[in-house]
Every structure is written in C-alpha cells, then in structure tokens.
Design a protein that fits this description.
Blueprint (H helix, E strand, L loop, with lengths): L6 E5 L10 H13 L10 E3 L29 H22 L17 H12 L1 H8 L1 H14 L3 E9 L1 H11 L4 E10 L6 H8 L13 E5 L19 E5 L10 H4 L3 H11 L13 H19 L5 H21 L12 H8 L2 H11 L14 H15 L3 H16 L62 H6 L3 H10 L2 H21 L6 H25 L4 H32 L1
Parallel strand pairs: 1-2, 1-3, 3-4, 4-5, 5-6
Helix pairs in contact: 3-4, 4-7, 10-11, 10-14, 13-14, 14-15, 15-18, 17-19, 18-19, 18-20, 19-20
Length: about 575
C-alpha cells in the first residue's frame, strides 16, 4: 500500500511510561478495523519519544546545556497571506468531514467555574504540575525540543498526535518544525490549551505558525474532561483549529485510548494512516444487497460514536457478529457473498442522485441495526452515525443538516412519546419499515428491501409496488397508492408508537421535499394525511353504527386520528411559513 504519510508521531501525556504503545494497540487499531480499515501498516514508522524525565522537578540539571533548534521560517507580506488562504481551504475540508459544530461549553463549562486567571494558574500548578513546569521552564522546553529533533525524522510527511501535556509540546514542536517535514494532520487530545495563563507562558509574544507545512489541526475534547477546561479551542485559535466534541463516558475521561476511539477521528485521519478494507460493489448489485450493506455500515458507525468502555458499546460489539451473519444469510440466495464490507462511495454511486441517497438516509433514521440484542440506542448516536454515513455516501453536508433537522422537528411535534425504533421486532435484524408516499422525489422511498426489511408484518401492506426502497411499502405508502381505506384499517392494528414513527417519517419527507425543491414540493404528503384522516373518521363512524356509540374500536381510532391531524397541522404550518418567507 502506498500510504499518504511516512511517519506517525505520538507525544505522550502526563504520567506516561517509556515504551508504552497502548495508545495504538487499544485506541486506533481496533477503531480502524471496526470501520473497515487496515491497522496501521508496517510501511509507516511509528514514533513515541519519551520526554517525561526532562520535566521532573529536578530535571533542570539535565537540561542545562540544551539549546532550542532553529525556528521554522515563516514568510511575510503577500506570501504569508497566500499561505494562510491555502491553509483556510484545507481547514474547510476538515470542517466538512467533521459535520456539525460543537456547541461552546455544551456540557462542562468547567472554565466558567474558575474565577480569574490567577486562580486558573494556581489550579494548573496543583492539578497539572508537569504542564506548569514545562511552560514555565525554558530549560525543560529546550531539552524536550532538542530530544525531539534528535529522535524524530527530519523529512517526510507525518501525522502528529499530542495527548494532554503532549498537545502543549506539539505546539512548541510546530514552532521549531524541521523545514522538510510536512504535518498532514496535527491531532490534539484532551488539550489544556484553553487555559489562558498556560497559553501566555507558552506562546509569549508570538508564534511561528507553519501555514505551509501543516495540512490541518484537529482538537478532540470532552466537556467533562477537567484538563481541557471543558472548552473547545476554536474560539481561541479561530484560523487554525477544527474542534471535535466527544463523549468519553463517565470513567477515565482523559485517557488517550478513549479519545482515540471515536469514529469522527477515523473519518478525518484514517485515510492518511490506513488502507480501506472494502471491496468494490458487485456489478450485479441490487437494492437488496445495497440496503444490507447500508444497515451493516450504519451499525458500525453508531458503535464508533458510542462512548468507549460503555456497556452499550460492549453489547454492540458482541451483537455485531450475530446481526451481520443474519444479513449475509438473508441476501445470499445462491450468490457468493462472503462479506458486507463493500465500498460506501460505490453504494453512493449506485444510488445515483443526492435525492436517492437522502431517501436511504431517511429510512435509516428508523433502523435499529442491533435489535433485538441492544435495546438502548440513543438518538445522538443514531444521528451522528447517519451524518457519518451520509458524508461517505457523498450527500452534501447542508442536505444532511436539513435531514437531521427535519426528523428532529417532526419528532418534537410528538415529543410526549417514548421514542422506540419501529424496526425492533422478534426478528433477528430489524430495519426501517415504511416511507410515506410514492412520488418522484424524497417520498419515492418506502423502506429497506429484501433481507434488510425484516419488519413487523403490519408495515407491509401487500405486494411490491416497485424495486429497491419500494419493496416494502408501509401503511402510509398505501395512501398515495390509492389505498387510503386499506391504510386506515391497518392503522387499527398499529401501536401508537408505530403510528407516530410512520407519521414522523411522512412529516420529515414532506419538509425535505419542500426544502430541496424535489418531487411535488410535499403536496402528496398532505394529500396522504388528508385522505387518511378522512378514512379514519369514516371508519370510526361505521364502527359506531354497528357497535353503538360506546364502541371501544371507534374510540381507539379517534385517538390515532388525533395524531394524524396533529401531523397534518404541523406540515401545513411548515409549508405556510416557507411560502411566507419566499414571498418576503
């Protein structure tokens, strides 16, 4: 394999030991394999220089004769501005790969609890004494930089990881970067650089930022990690860094292996340090195979977004083999299918248009790749898994944002419900069920097909209306096919949660059509809701005529009709608002 980098350098954090490669063995390698990438190949040299002995309290004697290396030369004037513009273009690509912007101080806001710079400086000395010694001792800094230059390569392309104290050392190393080194990616993990007193001592009056020698800087932080102050770095290093907020669980949140075990990191760094372990999608691929590949891929991305060490992630790992085996058994049918590790970009090309890819993502929002083994999936993990998969499929980031917002808003309109995946059944692998209606746009989708569509019987209203996503038309899909009366009868058998999930899918699809200007602009979804509402009203009336005014069946239908009317009102409000904004 011709890798994109020649070297990986890991600058250790506080309390590290010599020759400890657990960060690689326990952190990166398992995650790379989880997301269908190879472990770090032997063609890449891995370096883990140890410098903890140079920062100990009695280390000044060792560093007495050490000298700083020559700082990296940075041009001035127009040439410097051109380099900054080039770096900004590379940074924008990282922003696209990251997805959503982390909220400022979303969970921790730990720095807000520290009154003043003086108190923060005392806190650094007490809780992070090695960091405090490093930034305050020029002798220690000279010795560390001298050792790094002696032990690390002087040329080539590198990925530089810095954990905790190592992130501070990494910033110093960039200042003294060898001229023939190009840092493809700087990755800081659990960095204390949000503390102003620390930055003041470290950076002094200025800093040579290697605009021409750096591909981009990614900073991973957990708002509950005390060392980070609970804060991102983008508000401080506005032109340099891209923040990635992670959840490391509740135990040992500062450990490097937890930071290295997040799917976003592999998306942003994986292509540089590993090889994709997928095979091209077969020429005879059909919707059945494509949907199974997508379900398997979504499950792995949800697992990668789940906090490291959590019980849910452990259960997901155990359940993965069972669910993937079931998918394989379902799609073989005389075909030699040994793996579902097919190229996701190939799947995106197979789907064709952006609309077709969004259709799949909307169905996947209601999928449960781990059922029935894991029943406590969280919407955040599902959402981030969808975001990651959408980017790999080639969906535009703004369209993914529209999709996530549409589903979130639609769910919020039924926010008193206890959200459960419709896909959770007595089957082995449960997949998204039905889509709303059959029109040329977003609504053309119904649910996942073939082996992937192991769904509850009531989600299938009979027959195949089309290929691919239309192979399992749901209750609301029958409305647009002219079967409103039949769909109304099926609603009787749905639980309230199941009906709400169908309605949410319909509402989200309608909004997406309107926002993306595809299909019929959501008009068919309104027609479907109106028709279903009328048929439910008529069905309840007939039950009362036969069974009397106290009919329990009629009362149950009325309760479900309230949900349909709520969805119709919600869609009307969104469309009226959009039309008013367009007129303005």
């Amino acid at each position: 394999m011709a890798s994109n980098v020649d070297h990986i350098i890991f600058l250790h954090g506080r309390g590290a030991r010599r020759n400890d490669d657990a960060w690689l063995r326990d952190g990166l390698d398992p995650l790379l394999q989880l997301l269908d990438r190879s472990v770090i190949p032997s063609t890449i040299e891995v370096h883990r220089p140890f410098f903890g002995d140079l920062i100990e309290p009695d280390s000044d004697r060792k560093a007495r004769d050490a000298q700083y290396p020559a700082p990296l030369h940075v041009p001035f004037g127009d040439e410097l501005e051109a380099l900054r513009e080039g770096y900004e273009l590379r940074r924008r690509e990282l922003l696209k790969a990251r997805g959503r912007r982390p909220p400022h101080g979303a969970r921790g806001q730990l720095l807000d609890r520290i009154p003043g710079n003086q108190a923060a400086a005392v806190l650094i000395r007490q809780r992070m004494p090695d960091v405090a010694r490093y930034v305050s001792s020029h002798a220690a800094r000279r010795a560390v930089m001298q050792r790094l230059h002696a032990e690390l390569p002087q040329q080539g392309r590198i990925v530089l990881f810095g954990h905790s104290l190592g992130s501070v050392v990494a910033l110093d190393y960039l200042h003294f970067l060898p001229r023939d080194i190009y840092v493809e990616r700087l990755v800081t993990l659990g960095s204390p650089l949000a503390f102003r007193p620390l930055r003041r001592q470290l950076m002094g009056q200025g800093y040579n930022w290697p605009w021409a020698n750096l591909g981009g800087w990614i900073n991973l932080y957990d708002p509950e990690d005390f060392v980070t102050g609970g804060e991102p770095l983008e508000p401080i290093f506005r032109r340099e860094v891209v923040d990635v907020q992670v959840d490391n669980g509740k135990k040992d949140v500062h450990r490097s292996r937890h930071y290295l075990s997040h799917g976003t990191l592999v998306r942003m760094v994986g292509p540089l340090i590993s090889e994709e372990r997928t095979t091209p999608l077969p020429a005879d691929a059909d919707a059945e195979l494509v949907d199974s590949v997508l379900i398997r891929a979504l499950g792995r991305r949800i697992e990668a977004e789940t906090p490291t060490g959590s019980e849910r992630r452990k259960k997901m790992g155990k359940a993965r083999g069972f669910t993937e085996d079931a998918l394989l058994e379902g799609i073989q049918r005389g075909r030699d299918v040994r793996s579902l590790a097919y190229s996701i970009p190939d799947v995106g090309a197979w789907l064709g248009s952006d609309v077709a890819r969004i259709e799949r993502l909307l169905a996947l929002f209601f999928a449960d790749p781990f059922a029935p083994f894991v029943t406590e999936n969280r919407s955040h993990e599902q959402r981030e898994g969808i975001r990651a998969l959408g980017l790999e499929l080639g969906v535009k980031p703004q369209h993914i944002r529209h999709l996530i917002r549409a589903v979130g808003d639609a769910r919020a309109s039924h926010d008193e419900r206890d959200w459960k995946s419709l896909a959770r059944t007595a089957g082995i692998v449960a997949i998204a069920i039905a889509a709303p209606f059959a029109v040329p746009g977003i609504g053309a989708m119904a649910g996942l097909s073939g082996a992937a569509a192991i769904t509850h019987g009531l989600a299938v209203v009979g027959g195949t209306v089309g290929g691919g996503m239309m192979a399992g038309v749901g209750v609301l899909g029958a409305v647009s096919a002219g079967g409103a009366a039949f769909a109304a009868r099926q609603v009787q058998s749905l639980s309230t949660d199941e009906l709400v999930a169908e309605l949410v899918r319909l509402q989200a699809a309608a909004v997406l059509e309107k926002r993306l200007s595809v299909g019929t602009g959501g008009r068919d979804s309104r027609r479907a809701l109106i028709a279903l509402n009328q048929e439910l009203k008529l069905l309840a009336k007939r039950h009362r005529q036969v069974e009397g005014q106290s009919s329990k069946v009629a009362a149950s239908i009325d309760e479900k009709r309230v949900l349909v009317k709520r969805s119709l009102t919600w869609v009307n409000e969104r469309f009226d608002r959009a039309d008013a904004n367009r007129e303005l």
